[in-house]
Each structure stands twice: as C-alpha cells, then as structure tokens.
Amino acid sequence: MAGDFNFSFGGNFGKVSDQRAKCPSGTYDINCKETCSVNCNIPQSCDRTTGECIGGCQPGWKGFHCDQKCNQGTYGKDCQHRCGSCINQTHCFYVNGTCLKGCDTGYLGDKCVDENLKMESLCGKSNTIQILAISIAISIFVLLLGTILNITIWKRNQLKTRGRQSRHTTGNSDSAKPNLAESTYTELGAVNNHNAYDDLHHYSKAS
Hints:
Number of domains: 3
Distance between the termini: 226 Å
Order of helices and strands: EEEEEEEEH
Largest sheet: 2 strands, antiparallel
Low-confidence stretches: 1-19
Number of strands: 8
Mean pLDDT: 78
Shape: rod-shaped
Strand content: 5-15%
Helix content: 40-55%
Number of helices: 1
Radius of gyration: 59 Å
C-alpha cells in the first residue's frame, strides 16, 4: 500500500534524528570539556554554553566564573561588605569578614565592627593611672634631687665656716705672740730697774 511505503537511506527508513545532546550537569563549553566552578552559588551549576554560574557566586568570590576572590578590604556575597577595624589595618577573611588577628583598640567581635565602650573606658582609666604614676615618680625624683642638692650645699657651707674659724684662730694666736714678748720685755725691764735701784740704795748707805 502506498500509505505504508517508506523511503530508506543508509538503513534509516525515512527517519531524521537530532544527534545534538546537552552537556551533563556541571560541565560546559565545546565537547563539555570545562567544569563549572565549585564557587558558584550552587556548586558546579553553570550555563552549559558559557559556564556562567547560575545564581551568582558564593560569599567571598566574584567574576563571571566565580574564580576571583574579593579584593582586600571587602568580603561576603558579591564582595559588597567592607572589613571592620582589624588590628593594624590587616585585611579580614574574604568569605565572612572575620578579623583573624583580632581587633584594633576600642572594637570587639569577630568582625571588629562593634565599638567597645567599656574597653575604651578601661583604656582611659589605664592611661590616667599611667600618667598619675609617672607624675608621682617625677615628683619623688625631684624631691630626692632637691634634698641631695641641699645636703651638698649645707656641707660646703659647713666646710667654709670651719675654714674661716680655723684661719681666725690661727690669726689670734699669731697676734698674741708679740704681746707676750712685749710683756716679757716689760717685766724684764721692771726687774732691771728694781735691781738698779737696790744697787744705788746700798751704795748710798755704804758711803
């Protein structure tokens, strides 16, 4: 019957089939030779032709194929968040923003974004105590220095006074020596005069 007649060519009886097949899930490109990125929002889920991640990237990653980490200082989904006050301005973890080495003064938390008022208060008290201690130490040093200087000056004055007294005593002793000699001379003169008087008296009696 004419309705049942089929042309055949190469063993196929009038049937034309589409030999193109889609790449398996997780692959893309020519001959499906490339693998979708594990950093896709749904790991290894991308467009079979271009490899673009479906639904974007996981936190901390960016780019068409989600193969680039967030720039330093940013983190999270689409790298939209900025790092907190990490210690010494170090960069936070690009995935969740954690400051791995701790926070700068005045901040706390994993991401160092919470102001630590209590910590600031403690730091202020600590600084006040340090300043007070330094002031006391300086005052004690000045007091000791003044005491030492006063003692040194007092000793010098004592030595000067003793020196003057010693010179004055020596001067008096020297001035007393001529007076003693003069007194002795006077006494000897008086004795000689008395002896001469006695000799004249005896001589007058003998005559």
